[in-house]
Amino acid sequence: MKIIHFSDTHLGFSDLDAVSRSGINLREEDFYRAFSYIIDAILEEKPDFVIHTGDLFHRPSPTNRAISVALEQFNRLRAADIPLILIAGNHETPKTKALAPILKIFENYENISVAYNQNAGIFRFEDIDFFALPHINSQEQTLKELERIEEALDLNKKRVLLMHCSVGAHYLMQEFGEWVYPKAKEYLFGMFDYVALGHWHGFGRVGKFQNVYYAGSSERTSSSDRRANKGYVVVNLNDNLEVKHCQIDLRPFVEIVIDVNSLEEELREINKEKCQEAIVQVVIKNLDISKSIEIDNSYIESFFENAASVKVKREFKDGQQKSIEGVESLTLESFFYEHIKSQSASQEESKRLIERAKKLFFEIEESSSDIE
Q1: Given this structure, which CATH class describes domain 2-247?
Q2: What is the spatial distance between Cα 355 and Cα 171, in angstroms, rounded to a whole number?
């Protein structure tokens, strides 16, 4: 029996200011492309089942475009008669009861079994049972659902457990709203042929457990995530468990570190082929205030005309200033715009606030000229 496991596709994610040829946010389109690539691979592999372990969408209220992409791609699985088991992750789980769970839209799909709303789903097929535990905000509810799963186990059939959580590494959990799998219930892993996890964005087996795996994400959600092992997992439930990670092609991410004291020389020596259609982060080190003011981002960007996006990060000498990303000059106006970008919840909010700020700065300039 063959199963394909993928996770954390974060449809609707957007970042940077770059726009694709289609007129939408470049990174948003990259996430749709990765999702489509995995569906293509599934149709080629022809597995018996497909499982997605959470964070299908990046937000509890995704855009119409993100929803349309999900529906279009899942319809391809339905046309191929491939069953899909889907659970909610923390990103798409509403924080309030006033907001309806987005995964409810898949309830009436013939080939989709979906678990959301902080309740476990038990989906039984002829030769295999899937126990689907979505993101849960309450530890008490988690224990209750795990007990219900344990009572429902049929040891005469294949069994797969799906969860969106952290197994172990409790001390690393800082993101609001996550939950950690209780240590007291780790013995349950031995009762399953495969435990499929979502939430961590890197593929890998979990510690001492031979059958517990994170599929990882389909794309990078931050510039600090340099891992290239994005893709999907092919699981064969034969006499022995076989797990194979299949990597997909991503837009390249290139970081170039330049010492300000040799700025011109290092910029001229850049390998432009490596930066073709890449997301480039240029780190300028050993800056002081005066040198930073002299360097415009547009000048740095002019050396990367074939890159998809260029982000400039400035690192100041010790004791002068912490790193500032994307600052062209240290004027109040430009610094304020960068602060808005860093604090905004979305690109749309950032644009709206910056436009408002620009009007305010313009009004201040006008009043100053009137006084003069």
Answers
A1: alpha beta
A2: 40
- CB burial string 285-319: b at 16+ within 10 A, e below: eebeeebbeebebeebbebbeebbbbbbbbbbeee
Is 87 exposed, middle or buried (CB count within 10 Å of its CB: 0-12, 13-18, 19+)?
A: buried
Where in 165-321 does DSSP place strands (E)? 194-198, 204-205, 212-214, 231-237, 241-247, 253-259, 279-287, 309-316
Residue 124: both structure tokens together: 């039984």
What per-residue confidence (pLDDT) applies to 232? Answer: 98
pLDDT at 284: 94
| pTM > 0.85: yes or no | no
Q: Are 233 and 213 in contact (CB under 8 A)?
A: yes
- CATH 3.60.21.10, the chain: domain bounds: 2-247
Q: Determine the pLDDT at residue 220.
A: 93
- Residue written as tokens 């991503």? 250
C-alpha to C-alpha distance for 202 and 218, rounded to whole angstroms? 9
Calpha distance 189→167 (Å, rounded): 11
Per residue in 194-234, pLDDT (tens digit) is 999 999 999 999 988 999 999 999 999 887 787 778 999 99
